[in-house]
Amino acid sequence: MSLVGEAGLRQLCQSRQIFRCSHTCLKGLLGQVRSSDRHRIVTAQALQMVTAPSPEAPGQREAAAKKRVVFVVGGPGSGKGTQCDLISRDFSVPFFSAGELIRSLIASGCAEGKQLQDIILQGHIIPSEVTVGLLQKAMAETSSDTVLIDGFPRNTENRTVWQSQVGYDCEMVLLFDCPEEVMLQRLKHRRDGRADDNEDTIRKRVQNFKSQMAPVLDYYQSIGKVTTINTDRPVEDIYSELNSIWRQRFVPTSP
Question: Which distant-in-sequence residues (6+ apart) come within 8 Å of 12 by Cβ?
Answer without folding.
Answer: 18, 137, 138, 141
